Amino acid sequence: MNKSIFANMFVTHKNIRIHYSVTGNGPTLLLLHGFMETSVMWNDYIENLSQTRHVICVDLLGHGKTENIGYIHCMEDMAKAVYAVLDELNVEKIDCIGHSMGGYVALALAELHPELIDDLCLLNSTYEADDEERKILRTRAAQMATTNFDTLVRMSFTNLFPESSQIKFKNDFEKALEIGLKTSKQGFIAGHKGMAIRPNRLDILKKIKGEKVIIIGDKDWIVNKEKIIADTKNTDIKIEVFSEGHMSYIENKSELSYFLKRFSEK
Known about the structure:
Helices cover 43% and strands 19% of the residues. The chain is of the alpha/beta class. Strands 1-2-4-3-5-6-7-8 form an eight-stranded mixed sheet, with helices on both faces.
């Protein structure tokens, strides 16, 4: 079994390069990172997952080593870029885990290709559209990014962590912030604008035939835990609540590792 991560693999899509990595053999598991993150967020988990799975990680538009296609990256644009990778690899069926914005992209991918995704996990993510307050915040962030980018990224990223987590997970926090600061200005603006116009995709989530799980951090101010629990009552969508905030891959590493092992077993 091949357990190496093949870095710096690219596919051309709309005249730009999409970066991805592949490791392991077995049923395909697609991992999608969140906003101001890259595919390296999964590095602590890939070795175990690739024992039994063909793991694909993609840098989304404007993040990591993937280039930009414009100043608005809607979730459908990002999903089409991801699909270009899957098509290049002749992948027809996947399970998928999407963190935060990666979950939004996964749902857009499920809408564009209804038969593609078997099982889906939204990690610190949601099917909901932005409310008006959130849309206003995104508009302000996009405007501020043109003049005070580094300060804005630091503030935006820091707000993802409760203060206690910033202290408890100081090393991981600083590493993740360093990655966030490498997000291009255009990628930051385009991502915010794209997330602001995404629709509610609860119906798309419900239509997925396999296992559907939403992981929520109990201290996560971005994801509306109470509403999600109410919306998904009497459905086959499972809810798991972890103890910390929006960055479960850092704050709840052991719980997430255990979950991923169960989710990825086939």
